[in-house]
Design brief:
Strand order of the largest sheet: 5-6-7-3-8-9
Strand content: 5-15%
Helix content: 40-55%
Largest sheet: 6 strands, mixed
Shape: elongated
Radius of gyration: 38 Å
């Protein structure tokens, strides 16, 4: 390679050599050869779907090319330690890619922090760009701007840090002609004064006349690359648009048009010595770029300024959405309140028929009925026929029957050692139940048993034949003698609420940001996947801490759920379960790029996890094959650990608590690793799919 060529090559802002990009059987870019010297404007022209946006993403390193080589400002894009993506490049995508909850000032400060700008520089650029782009009120929220104003803010975000390379994807769509002319003039000025290089795509072919170079693109191929005036003269056309139409017709007639055009262009150079094309086509030796391990390690370390900018961004958005703020903080409290109020309590006002045929004076059956809990069972005295009919019609949950000789037979049983079957049948309380609701039938049986025991203690305590069963429940080792189902379900409910709320919010927020182009724009600005994950985790931890404090206040103080253990220990365990939810949300949002699929997966996880984790029913009742699955789920051991902390006062000296923490941490590590791998490996295919549709 001669010295002159080497000197020119060092000045190239972008060079593409034989770039091909395929997606399945679809070829998006086909042997693309393109050069852009520093300090020039390159207009990339072509219809929608021809590959312009795809090409820009390849230049940014957002897409991996299938073959060929791209160098941007001297190095391949995404090279470790290189500023592309990052501070050296500015990018305006076709999508607005702006946070609707931000003001114009917030938007500038956010991107300024990511690019490492100080407050003084940010304010200076803010003042200039707001005036230049005619944005009026810099404190207006993005969601309140018109479509044209939003595009101007998007352009301003790309111009903010005065990058060396500026990539603008359809920047003048929806902009009035006067402002369009001002934008082009500004591009000409920054190229001339600052040696900035610009690649701009546009549908308005004639406005590209102001570019230093234009590339005419169709079906992933570059039909021509030269100064616009040269192309018009060479093809003897009146406008650049007519040149493009002619090349399209020629391309349809011959697949070798590009090679023919290059030969013709060379012959034209010989005829017209005054025309010089600042383009390098030809065989340039392959450059190899090596990276040392120190540089690679340095590039892997997260930038705390990016993390801080992302955390601040999250809290600004939450503050601007009061409804969402209430949802975040009070939904867990509402869910826990509903569980404590509606689950585990004793059924009330149960309508039960009473068929009392006892003729004793006084009637022992009446004393038994007096001992029934009137808050739970409401008695309706009927005959046998009406009682049966009422049960069949759904009016009563059951019927309690006493025989005609109930008083006489129960006294015989109390006084006689030898009694016949008729006496046993006569002094029995007969119960007919509607067994379709087991919890209600168990309640009726329990209340009837308690009434009979009370009757025995009051009236027949001296007679051993009818004494209460010889079983005495002593003071419990753990828990309370009259614990209800709410006590069992509360620990698992606390964990599941924290887990699934974090899962849902993480999944939706990342999918929506990706769909709106916000994640792509952040990535181009230099934000890496690990920084996004850490920032989201930090902001969610702060939010979850408030959630958990409110949740525990209601759980312990309002609903009197007992706590015998360490409060910091149980808070840490609940927070870790929230982090599992965040991690799984990252996996789902990385694997699926649309809200519907991501929501379906998140909802599909909910019910099996609740059922199999022993949250609403003991895992000892689960069939053995399913129990093996339940034991590896994130919440099974965590629920048992939380019950141990709450009700037994256990700590790390007990193995079940260790199990809960170890398995929780293992799931966090697994999901975070999986999310990072998916984000790195599959973001490219997702972006290709998006680019193809553009």
């Amino acid at each position: 390679m001669d010295p002159a060529a080497a000197e020119d090559f060092s000045l190239l802002a972008v060079e593409c050599r034989g770039v091909c990009l395929t997606y399945g059987k679809l070829t998006v870019l086909n042997n693309l050869r393109l050069t852009l010297p520093q300090g020039q404007i390159f207009g990339l022209l072509g219809p929608s779907g021809c590959g312009k946006t795809t090409f820009l993403r390849c230049v940014l390193g957002r897409l991996l090319i299938s073959r060929g080589q791209i160098t941007v400002l001297g190095k391949p894009p995404a090279f470790p330690g290189h500023g592309v993506p990052g501070r050296m490049v500015g990018y305006m995508p076709q999508e607005l890619a702006l946070y609707n909850e931000f003001s114009i000032t917030d938007t500038f400060r956010f991107f300024g922090r990511i690019h490492g700008m100080n407050s003084k520089d940010i304010e200076a650029r803010l003042s200039f760009l707001v005036d230049f782009l005619d944005l009026h009120d810099k404190n207006m929220l993005i969601k309140n701007l018109s479509g044209g104003q939003k595009r101007r803010v998007s352009l301003a975000a790309a111009l903010l840090h005065e990058p060396q390379l500026l990539l603008l994807d359809e920047p003048t769509v929806g902009v009035d002609p006067v402002l369009r002319a001002r934008i082009w003039q500004h591009l000409v000025d920054i190229v001339k004064d600052q040696r900035t290089s610009v690649i701009i795509t546009t549908h308005y072919i004639e406005e590209a006349r102001q570019a230093d170079l234009v590339g005419l693109m169709r079906n992933g191929k570059l039909l021509a690359e030269a100064p616009p005036d040269y192309l018009i003269r060479f093809h003897n056309m009146s406008s650049l648009e007519n040149v493009f139409l002619k090349l399209c017709k020629t391309s349809d007639q011959s697949k070798t048009v590009s090679g023919i055009f290059q030969k013709n262009k060379q012959s034209c150079r010989e005829k017209d010595k005054e025309e010089t094309l600042p383009i390098l086509h030809g065989d340039i030796e392959q450059n190899t770029f090596k990276v040392g391990w120190k540089l690679w390690m340095k590039s892997m370390i997260p930038k705390w300024r990016n993390i801080a900018a992302l955390v601040i961004k999250t809290f600004i958005r939450i503050r601007r959405m009061p409804g969402f703020l209430g949802f975040q903080f009070f939904l867990p409290v509402i869910q826990m309140s509903l569980i404590c109020l509606c689950i585990g309590g004793s059924p009330k006002d149960l309508h039960v028929a009473v068929v009392n045929n006892d003729t004793g004076k006084p009637a022992m059956s009446q004393i038994v009925l007096w001992h029934l809990d009137n808050d739970t069972i409401i008695q309706f005295h009927l005959n046998q026929s009406d009682a049966n009919k009422g049960i069949k019609d759904g009016k009563y949950w059951g019927a309690i029957g006493f025989g005609a000789n109930y008083t006489q037979d129960i006294l015989l049983r109390a006084t006689q050692k030898m009694i016949d079957n008729s006496t046993i049948n006569g002094d029995s309380i007969h119960v007919w139940l509607d067994m379709t609701n087991e919890q209600i039938t168990l309640t009726i049986e329990q209340k009837l048993r308690e009434a009979y025991e009370g009757f025995v203690k009051d009236c027949l305590y001296n007679f051993s034949n009818v004494a209460a069963p010889p079983i005495k429940i002593e003071k419990p080792i753990y828990g309370h003698k009259h614990s209800d189902f709410t006590t069992f379900i509360a620990p698992g409910a606390i964990l599941s609420i924290t887990f699934f709320l974090a899962l849902g919010l993480t999944t939706l927020s990342f999918v929506i940001e990706r769909r709106e182009g916000l994640m792509d724009r952040g990535w181009v600005a230099g934000v890496r996947s690990l920084e996004v994950i850490l920032a989201h985790t930090i902001s969610q931890l702060v939010t979850m801490t408030v959630q958990i404090i409110l949740l525990l206040i209601f759980t312990f103080l309002i609903f009197k759920i007992p706590n015998e253990g360490s409060l910091p220990l149980l808070v840490i365990l609940i927070l870790l379960q929230g982090i599992i939810g965040i991690s799984l949300g990252l996996v789902i949002s990385a694997a699926f790029d649309d809200e519907q699929s991501a929501t379906q997966v998140a909802l599909g996880i909910f019910y099996p996890d609740i059922v199999l984790s022993g949250i609403i029913w003991p895992i000892e009742s689960i069939p053995y094959p399913l129990r093996c699955i339940s034991l590896i789920l994130p919440q099974t051991y965590a629920s048992e650990a939380l019950r141990g902390i709450l009700y037994r006062g256990w700590g790390f000296t007990h193995w079940p608590v260790w199990n809960g923490f170890v398995i929780t941490l293992a799931w966090i590590a697994f999901f975070l690793l999986l999310a990072t791998i998916i984000l790195k490996r599959f973001d490219y295919s997702i972006c290709v799919d998006t680019s193809v549709h553009h």
